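fyi for ur records
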Amino acid sequence: RTDEEHIEAMINGTPTVIDVMLLNVESISMQFGAYGIVPEVLSNFLKKKKSRGINYVLALLSALMRHKAKSYKIDVDGTTTEYFTDMVAIMNIQTAGGGLKICMDAKIDDRKLDLVVVKHVGFFRYWANVIALARGKILKQPNVVHQLVDSATMICDSVENCVVDGEMIAMQSCKMAVY
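which gave:
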């Protein structure tokens, strides 16, 4: 859209009600929270002197090459499951981290959050997942858990970076609930 079309939509458009997430009972989030490779990409990008598109691609490639899978516990409705993952995310939108197509099924107004866990099962599956992610088909992979939830908590063994709506936050657990 042009600037004029955006202004026209803001003035004459129809307001839409969207879901928001309560983050750790103290903050509001509208988009997503993620551990694993997503914070690695953002960390690499923030190290660059200039925020340009090519630097994002370089940050992504660097993260993909150096990434090490980790164990996370996920609590949904009092049931905790441990996963060895490349990424775990609670999504309210379809994309994250510069347009990565993490959850193409997500709807910002369905009163549900999308829990996405990409289990690490080996080198070849990891790279197949990278290709699937680029094509927006990560949810169709055999090692991906996708679940609609009212709330979920991602728990780490220690404090580590989590990306919440594009911001890096160091925390040991991240609880997100539809608000």
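DSSP finds four helices and eleven strands in the chain. thats all i got for now
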